[in-house]
Amino acid sequence: MAAIWKGSVTFGLVNIPVELRTAVRADHISFRMLHQEDMSPIKYERVCAADGEPVPWNEIVKGYEYEKGKFIVMEDEDFKAAAIEGSKTIDILDFVKEEEIDPRFFETPYYLVPAKGAEKAYALLREAIRSSGAVGVGKIIIRQTQHLAGIKVVGDALVLEIMRFSNELVNADEYTFPDRDQVRPQELKMAEQLIENLAEPFDPSKYTDDYRSNLMKIIKGKMKGKKVKLEEPEEVVDTGVLDLMSRLRASLEQGNAKKTARAKKAPAKRARSSKRKTA
Question: Do the domain assignments include residue 55?
Fold first, then answer.
């Protein structure tokens, strides 16, 4: 994949040439709006809210609504005046312990790939960040927009994550959350046991997008002129919040049964693995 950005990471007087490359990809199913009668794609027009007439591009301006129905018109010169001069460096301003950063700040990850000749300096920064458990926080300008960014280690890669600025986070004080004293000790103990029973090493491959999978089954069936029958999900019966203890007990029993089943499977897997090694 092509580099999204090319420049350097700087910390202190150290300069490391890097390229910014995508670390995630969207996997959405896209659809077009069609006219039912002839299957022609639908076009969208820019229509004036006052008279309902289409408006050509040369008559459209950008406006900031400072009060309901009142606007300040912004000219191209205004945006140019506010623009920040493009920079080809990511200046690490601070190193912060990762656990001190609210996860809500992190948004989109990218790989930082070393340019030719920068491998040694890249590896040095990576191992220093790894051993310190810190995140390098700085700023980057991508496509004329300034972003806060965090640099962390994932395996052998330095990963830059676009971060939100503090004014973009919603303060939790705007909502009401239950107090800790509503939890009874015996309920907490059972809930902790349930979590322990369900504890597993993280395996991202086991979590799939069932809705996307169902849509693709239906689409492929329609392409073949067939109607696909999907399995209906089990109906969840809401027994109410007052029956919390009995549901915790039932969940524990179910969790214990699954844990026992997994424990029985483990020796069989080890035996098969041992046989293959012997062979």
Answer: yes
